[in-house]
């Protein structure tokens, strides 16, 4: 037998065996998964619920005197997280790009019990800035206990309407790589302190909502990154993955990355995207996040009702996609904001007052660029 024939026979048997193994797994694995779901899930959830309501609160760690670094602390969730940690007596290192806003947050934290606070103006999409932020924190406090990766921006536009897709690279650089850079530099210090990483992702990581495809992808990447990292280093450093729904912040005021790649305020687009969905106050959200981080939870969803939407994604994705398409996608050739969700929103003037905190309605004057600039800088 010549060499080519032997190779052919070997390949035939090799591929045949892998084909049979995969075929067997296709037959065996799905029923096992379903049986596990029915028989294992109820007791698993019960035990988890028991532990989270009885044991975890008792073992909850005190963060008084602990060193907490928060990125994106100049507004929204990050600002409220700083205030909540301060209320619990922590020492803070606050990071963002806008100095004046950071100074004002730092001032607020000192008024309510923060042991010590310092601010760093940095852009988390720059790896050198992230390295420096961690180094400066260690230089100042000598340790790091919690790293809260919260900085983020949201590009909002139908994907195909974007004139240059590279305009959105900054979203991935900030939301995903910003978290990765800070995490990478912080791990040695967090290992020493047996500390914790709090990664602010989003429920958009699993909910396929139109106009935020790049944002959703960046948040799905954050979830996946931290889940994998937890398997690698979970014994040394805790990781809490946070998946907020809609929370009061500059983002829910309509501050989005436009398709031209610039941050701008677009309340009309905000109303289209959010419509009559309720928005949770940032203070409440921050309290729940810090409580969960102190208890050592792996996941936090805020508001809690957002978590079951993950099951919808898993069990009836087509229906979810269909609803989103009907509600949030404009008709062919129509403006982006000409959607059923916006029409429903406009049908109930004043109802949003009960669903959305008043603060998200600033700035009302969409055209007043100077006022908007002064507010955001
Ligand atoms: N609000 C929601 O409904 C919601 C829902 C799910 C997830 N989230 C996530 O929650 C996090 C906080 O957002 P938010 O809702 O509180 O919005 P926000 O008020 O706009 O806050 C975003 C923060 O990130 C900072 N930031 C943005 N780009 C940065 C950069 N390159 N370097 C450093 N800091 C940067 C901003 O500060 P500077 O502009 O001063 O740099 C600001 O402090 C984000 O990761 C967001 O994706 C929000």
UniProtKB/TrEMBL annotation:
UniProt KW keywords: Membrane, NADP, Oxidoreductase, Signal-anchor, Transmembrane, Transmembrane helix
Localization annotation: Membrane
Keyword presence, Oxidoreductase: yes
Any single Pfam family the record assigns to this protein: adh_short
GO cellular component: cytosol; membrane
InterPro entries referenced in this protein's UniProt entry, alphabetically: NAD(P)-bd_dom_sf, Sc_DH/Rdtase_CS, SDR_fam
GO MF annotation list: oxidoreductase activity
Transmembrane segment boundaries: 6-25, 32-51
SUPFAM superfamilies: NAD(P)-binding Rossmann-fold domains (SSF51735)
Family recorded in the similarity comment: Belongs to the short-chain dehydrogenases/reductases (SDR) family.
Name this polypeptide is given: 11-beta-hydroxysteroid dehydrogenase A isoform X1
């Amino acid at each position: 037998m010549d060499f080519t024939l032997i190779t052919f026979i070997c390949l035939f048997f090799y591929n045949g065996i892998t084909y049979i193994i995969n075929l067997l797994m296709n037959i065996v694995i799905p029923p096992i998964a379903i049986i596990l779901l029915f028989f294992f899930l109820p007791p698993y959830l019960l035990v988890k619920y028991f532990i989270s309501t009885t044991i975890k609160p008792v073992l909850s760690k005190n963060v008084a005197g602990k060193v907490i670094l928060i990125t994106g602390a100049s507004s929204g969730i990050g600002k409220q997280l700083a205030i909540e940690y301060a209320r619990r007596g922590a020492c803070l290192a606050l990071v963002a790009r806008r100095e004046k806003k950071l100074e004002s947050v730092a001032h607020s934290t000192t008024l309510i019990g923060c042991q010590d606070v310092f601010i760093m103006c940095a852009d988390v999409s720059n790896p050198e800035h992230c390295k420096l932020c961690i180094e400066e924190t260690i230089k100042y406090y000598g340790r790091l206990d919690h790293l809260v990766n919260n900085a983020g921006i949201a590009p909002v536009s139908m994907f195909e309407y974007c004139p240059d897709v590279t305009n959105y690279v900054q979203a991935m650089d900030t939301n995903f790589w910003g978290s990765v850079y800070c995490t990478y530099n912080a791990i040695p210090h967090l290992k020493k302190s047996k500390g914790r990483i709090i990664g602010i992702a989003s429920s958009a990581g699993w909910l396929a909502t139109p106009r935020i495809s790049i944002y959703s992808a960046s948040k799905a990447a954050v979830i996946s990154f931290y889940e994998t990292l937890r398997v690698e280093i979970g014994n040394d450093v805790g990781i809490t993955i946070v998946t907020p729904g809609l929370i009061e912040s500059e983002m829910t005021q309509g501050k989005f990355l436009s398709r031209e790649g610039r941050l701008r305020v677009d309340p009309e687009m905000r109303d289209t995207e959010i419509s009559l969905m309720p928005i949770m106050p940032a203070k409440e959200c921050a309290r729940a996040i810090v409580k969960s981080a102190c208890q050592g939870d792996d996941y936090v969803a805020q508001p809690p009702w957002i978590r079951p939407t993950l099951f919808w994604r898993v069990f009836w994705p087509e229906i979810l996609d269909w609803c989103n398409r009907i509600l949030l996608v404009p008709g062919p050739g129509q403006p982006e904001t000409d959607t059923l969700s916006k029409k429903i929103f406009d049908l109930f003037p004043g109802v949003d007052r009960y669903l959305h905190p008043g603060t998200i309605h600033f700035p009302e004057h969409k055209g007043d660029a100077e006022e908007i600039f002064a507010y955001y800088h």
